[in-house]
Amino acid sequence: MFSRKIGFEDDSITPYALRHTHTSYLLSKSIPIEYISKRLGHGNISITLEIHSHLLEVYKKEQGQRVRE
């Protein structure tokens, strides 16, 4: 399995999980979703938004708080 090849005993760590974690990290660093979409190789931004919209909800709340401050 992939997990064992990269040194993890747990088979739940998949390339998809690492990709999703990478996307979460980029969003947490305020990297624009347009850039992330291109980096992931998505054909258009709506694919990225559909897959990762739950991550954007947290981002929206954080941004709203920053505006209020």
TrEMBL record:
Domain of life (superkingdom): Bacteria
Sorted UniProt keywords: DNA recombination
One Pfam short name: Phage_integrase
Domain Tyr recombinase: 7-55
InterPro entries the UniProt entry points to: DNA_brk_join_enz, Integrase-like_cat_sf, Integrase_catalytic
Name of the protein in question: Tyrosine-type recombinase/integrase
Species annotation: Mammaliicoccus vitulinus
